[in-house]
Amino acid sequence: MAKKKTPAAASTESIDWYLISIDRLKQIGLIVLLLLIGGGAYWFWKNQSGNPKTLAEAAITDARQALNGLASSKDFATHKTEFDRAQKKLDEANTLFNSGKYPEAQSAAVESQTISRIGVVTDENDARFLTVEGDVQVQKSSTSDWKAADLRTPLMNGDWVKTADGASAELIFTNNSVYTMGPSALLEIYAQVAPGQSKKTNGVELKVGPVEVATTDDQSTIRTPGSQVVVDSASTTQVGVDKQSATNILTMKGTAAVTSTAGGDAIKLAGGEKVTASSQGTISPVKKTLAPPALLGPGDSQVFQMANDARIDFGWEPVPGAASYQLQVSRSRLFSTLEINARRTKPQAVARVTQEGMFYWRVASIGADGEVGPFSSFRRFRASGGDKGPKGPLPGGDTTPPPLNLNPPFSIGSANYFIEGTTEPGASVFINGEEVEVESSGHFKKLITLGKVGRNDVIVKAVDPSGNPTVKSQTIIVSEE
Q1: Are residues 284 and 264 in contact, defined by beta-carbon separation less than 8 angstroms?
Q2: Within a 13 Å sphere around the CA of 208, how many CA atoms are in the beta-carbon half?
């Protein structure tokens, strides 16, 4: 939880924040006092100026791994088209990187990785979950019952998905479009074959709440109470329906077309443009929002040691025309819950971390008219509570290994499996030696690709902040198809 100490503190350029895990507080019954922290540190920012390059390098590496996983799958022949598209995007990312265009290279690499994940969706469903965080429920079109969603839940035309407060979910459709649902959202899946065509249309009907749509080589459609939004290929658009059924549409990248349910010509939106549609279909004039700032520090995946009473200096490049900035810090990659959600008038902020774990942060620019623009891509940083190296537990400290509960491996086709489980909040988890993200609840999951036919042993290791390890293995038999 992150709070400002007093209204007066909120008006200064210093931040009275501690990053604390609510789940952790419930477990150990601690109450941490909020303290006033001093101003930011420009020197730190300057030494992080190469971070866009680092982010692009990491995205290209992830895209290459995803492409290799697709190439090694047993049903590769049926996904040759997706492989070629992903390879083309990866080549584009490398070209942009070599030209010094790091943000564009990162974007192209992320698109390549998304295309390579085509194996997640099969012909037996119209969409599947990529991520489920918190209370997410599904109602199948043939029933009136709501059931908890998980990664095994296939989604078909007419199914409903809803997220509770503080929950979120990612869905991937057969055309590789990824829909990220925010908290308190309700939507219906629709995927139908148009008359005279063999190709399915993919989209949702959004009743309430926020959703972000990222497309690859195909369009996706969002229907709302007063409008229809068609997100063009290779584009990202945010659509939100409030409690009065008004729709806010913000295109972050590429283009989108907004049409009123009352009729009329479509309104074309480019990156950074937004409109609002009433429930009766009245569409506002197009507004131009400010671009997100370039993040400076902390660097992506930077580690802060709790023993040093870690001070986190956030910094980002000023944006011309910005009156202020919105800073968000979360333990969720989808930002379904927020540790910090504050407005800053200067491109800097300071906080201290009192609990271990992974955090994500991002910033948006705010214009003089109060319009909030799109958020930047997130960065991560980790607060470590102790030595996780080979020396083992710290002397004189906690010597109890963390719990490690594993679900049965879940196949999503070919040699692709989700490894999922829970451990102690704040612990680090490694699957076959690769660290995975652990939610504040202790839940973790990772999609892996097994490269050999026959017996495959998956080693899962959890290490608590005191360095105590728990190791378990799962055996998966991959048959030759």
Answers
A1: no
A2: 10
Give percent of the chain above pLDDT 90: 36
- Strand 255-260 relative to strand 287-288: parallel, antiparallel, unpaired? unpaired
- H or E element in which residue 86 lies: helix 80-98
- Alpha-carbon span 44 to 27, nearest angstrom: 35
- In this structure, of 65-74, 136-145, 270-279, 315-324, the range with the lowest mean pLDDT score is 65-74
User: What is the token pair recorded at 316?
Assistant: 């980002």
Write out the DSSP string of 261-316. TT--PPEEEETTEEEEE-TT--BPPPEEPPPPPPEEESPTTEEEEGGG--EEEEEE
DSSP for 34-62, written as a single string: P-------HHHHHTTTTHHHHHHHHHHHH
Alpha-carbon gap, residue 49 to 317, rounded angstroms: 10
Lowest mean pLDDT among 16-25, 76-85, 196-205, 393-402: 16-25
Query: Terminal CA-to-CA distance of the chain, rounded, Å?
Result: 50
Whether the model clears a pTM of 0.70, i.e. scores above it, the answer is no
Q: Are strands 220-223 and 200-214 parallel, antiparallel or unpaired?
A: parallel
The answer for residues whose C-beta is within 8 angstroms of residue 153's C-beta and 6 or more apart is 128, 129, 138
